[in-house]
């Protein structure tokens, strides 16, 4: 049976929408059918530059795209502050939502979006691409292996990049009225997600921001860190920044093994995704070397991770459209947990680095 | 001119003394001349098992070794709690001291040792072997390179290993009366040193322990973490543990580059020491890959790092013995700073994770 092809519309011509347009083109069950901008010219130029097919529709307003009955799903790359307005409107038009991260300025906003999705029976998924890289499942297998990895005890995740002068002055991610969460909402989102992923989405009991976060004049976070603490003693540490050189890693340490990945958000190369594992390593007799050495693993990636994301989202949408399935709850639950931790880090900073309890 | 050969004695037959005995044998300017244990039989067996030459002297008490006029320098691998007693006795006998880490149970103890060294004009150096690996200087060159690395902003360092049931019950490193600092004094020492090394030994302004340290029934630290904060905004995070799989890394991030090393304390292989650098990396145009990729670097190591350590210590001792030089202050200053931070982490834990200011 041929797979149902889902017709996508995009509202807003953000930079990130270029990459997702390509992904919609690449995913076998997705079709780029429309793009909307606040100007028709901008939308037309975007469609042309991003290889939309000749029959793709060009809209000069988001509302007109949402009224198009041929569109099944809408990709929303708008600034975070606009999510709480536009995502519910998309849902009310019975269109499924692929929503950029962070999903809202706080979990309260995201709950409004979730309510709208539930009321209208539409699927929602956030745009965390690396979750869909085939490497991610391979790494998960290692973490779940009690023999090779044991019990998870510690996770460290960092994602930083040096934004540069222009970025720090003009990018929407440093503007309080657009993406007011700054580095925490951008790179921090990925590290928080990585930590939750490693724990199989078990929420921590307590979140404590590290001292010394860097905020810009408008109060937007440019760099910060936090430690997360679970009831069973697991500890995670995250650090995010717009102020230091491009670095991203996850190190997850269990009682018997260690996982390390240096390019978890954006792989060095989209066709090959590396990661390192070690298991029951110890020192040699005179403590002058290791036995066994860590293993370098490589996952070959046929379809870029963002196209895997579109394919998975379109599969869920197709299942609703054709089979009358209920919207999947796995992905929105993960989005909500990520936002919950993000909120807690921000609250802890605001409260002078006091621990913030996570209500489960 | 042939290099002066320094005659070493060892007091105590700890496991680590086996490795250092080999290093004394390998270093061109060092000679294993005597070993002392509380039993002559144990000392004799140690000398035999560790390839001491036939003329090496065997002593049934530490005092008798210290009275031997042929011994220039003494390696002290005794449990930490005994350092403050024995190291000053070694100094009073005008013998130079290679002292295992941590150098004391607190900086006050180490200051007593330093006073004794100064009063007697003897050299002291701690046993942090990785400092002497040729890789360490290569990595330092990268960190000092303003063009490739920029300004240091963040350092993360972890050193953990899974001690196992027997270790957690019987090892001296979990006994309050022997090595009362536990994981902080053992693996934590190395991470603290790595952080100080990365900052070129600039002391932080504030140290804050992370919540959730694990202590055994006797109150010895089995796992803990801390963040360190400098006046200029630099931040470092460390984590040490006896409870999770063998993992050790340093990631130092500057404004333009990143350094990462996965085996900083004990290289995977004593003849080759790898490290990764990246400089001015950014994403490609569509943010589907990195340009340039990080570089894998390898330093070939002729002499094992612990033998490099002995060679450097013996060189300093030789310079005092032959040329009447003053004892070097660089190494003891580094030891003291490391102990100072270690003390601050412990104090912060004891004070309920309050920040501890570092007096400079």
TrEMBL record, chains A, B:
SUPFAM superfamilies: Glyceraldehyde-3-phosphate dehydrogenase-like, C-terminal domain, NAD(P)-binding Rossmann-fold domains. Residues 144-259 form the GFO/IDH/MocA-like oxidoreductase domain. Gene3D superfamilies: Dihydrodipicolinate Reductase, domain 2, NAD(P)-binding Rossmann-like Domain. Residues 6-125 form the Gfo/Idh/MocA-like oxidoreductase N-terminal domain. InterPro entries: Gfo/Idh/MocA-like_OxRdtase_N (IPR000683), GFO_IDH_MocA-like_dom (IPR055170), NAD(P)-bd_dom_sf (IPR036291). PANTHER family: GFO_IDH_MOCA-LIKE OXIDOREDUCTASE N-TERMINAL DOMAIN-CONTAINING PROTEIN (PTHR46368:SF19), PTHR46368. Belongs to the Gfo/Idh/MocA family. This is Gfo/Idh/MocA-like oxidoreductase N-terminal domain-containing protein. It comes from Hevea brasiliensis.
């Amino acid at each position: 049976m041929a797979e149902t092809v889902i017709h996508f519309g995009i509202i807003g011509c953000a930079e990130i929408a270029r990459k997702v347009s390509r992904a919609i083109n690449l995913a076998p069950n997705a079709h780029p059918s429309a793009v909307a901008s606040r100007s028709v010219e901008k939308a037309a130029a975007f469609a042309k530059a991003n290889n939309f097919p000749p029959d793709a529709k060009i809209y000069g307003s988001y509302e007109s795209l949402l009224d198009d009955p041929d569109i099944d799903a809408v990709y929303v790359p708008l600034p975070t502050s606009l999510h709480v307005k536009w995502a519910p409107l998309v849902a009310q038009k019975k269109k499924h939502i692929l929503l950029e991260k962070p999903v809202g300025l706080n979990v309260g906003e995201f709950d409004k979006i979730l309510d709208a999705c539930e009321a209208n029976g539409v699927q929602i998924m956030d745009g965390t691409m690396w979750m869909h890289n085939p490497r991610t499942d391979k790494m998960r297998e290692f973490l779940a292996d009690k023999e090779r990895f044991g019990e998870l005890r510690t996770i460290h995740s960092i994602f930083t990049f040096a934004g540069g002068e222009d970025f720090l002055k003009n990018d929407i991610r440093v503007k309080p009225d657009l993406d007011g969460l700054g580095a925490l909402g951008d790179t921090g989102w990925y590290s928080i997600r990585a930590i939750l992923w490693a724990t199989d989405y078990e929420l921590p009991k307590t979140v404590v921001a590290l001292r010394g976060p860097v905020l810009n004049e408008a109060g937007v976070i440019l760099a910060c860190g936090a430690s997360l603490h679970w009831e069973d003693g697991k500890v995670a540490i995250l650090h995010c920044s717009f102020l230091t050189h491009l670095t991203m890693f996850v190190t997850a340490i269990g009682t018997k093994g260690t996982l390390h990945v240096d390019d978890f958000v954006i792989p060095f190369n989209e066709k090959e995704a590396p990661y390192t594992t070690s298991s029951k390593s110890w020192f040699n007799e005179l403590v002058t070397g290791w036995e066994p050495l860590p293993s370098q693993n490589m996952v070959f990636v046929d379809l870029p991770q963002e196209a895997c994301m579109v394919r998975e989202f379109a599969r869920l949408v197709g299942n609703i459209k054709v089979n009358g399935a209920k919207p999947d709850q796995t992905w929105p639950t993960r989005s909500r947990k990520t936002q919950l931790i993000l909120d807690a880090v921000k609250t802890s900073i605001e409260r002078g680095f006091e621990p913030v309890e996570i209500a489960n």
